[in-house]
Write the structure tokens for this entry.
Amino acid sequence: MIRLLILLFAFALPAHAEQVVAGLSKESIGITASFDGSEILIYGAVKRYEPEPEGRLDVIVTLQGPSSPVIVRRKSRELGVWVNTDAIEIPSAPSYYAVATTGPRQDILASEVDAIYRIMIPSAMRSFSDAIERANASPFAEALQRIRINEGFYRLKEGDVTLIEDTLFRADFQLPANLIEGDYLVRIFLLRQERVIDDYSAPIKVRKVGLERWLFMLSQDYPPLYGLLSLAIAVFAGWAAAFVFRRFR
């Protein structure tokens, strides 16, 4: 009986002495014809069940977009002309991946911990490239990472997480105008002395709304009807332009 009470008491104790309690300014984003990007505020606090332990406290927040297959091609110069000489398909790569931290990565996150949780951009990309059944897949994954960093789809914002008195934190993410529809994932990691002591995740739904949503669903569910509608609109636009030109000629 005593052992049973001890076991029940152990399960009743909190899993971590420090836990993340967080919220999002938006849980869904609607894409319209005038959509020019969106800003997401991620905020939270550190909940403690005992006095704060010693050691540096840090927070890392990641925002990951929906994944899809990507073909990466290698170009080589042949007889003075640049041509595609090799290609590889990465089965799944995030369309968007941003990381915000309270400080430089090398000061707040141990490499072996990053390898386990796949937090930073190289580690996250490695989790996708590892699924490729090919020996020389790493250069292609690195090239995709480099391209998307240059395009602004992969971002590392060191020092952009504001942490107040080791309790309250916030991070701001500016999403681009050419956002891809799908389910996005927010992950928050609470670290003490370069080790993850708690984590939290929450989804953000990005969907087309209004006329854009109707046209998208029409193209997916009824492709022939969508094609006929597009043709009719093109014919009408051409006729209207010709009519206006004749009237004012």
Q: What stands out?
A: The chain has two domains: 17-209, 210-249.
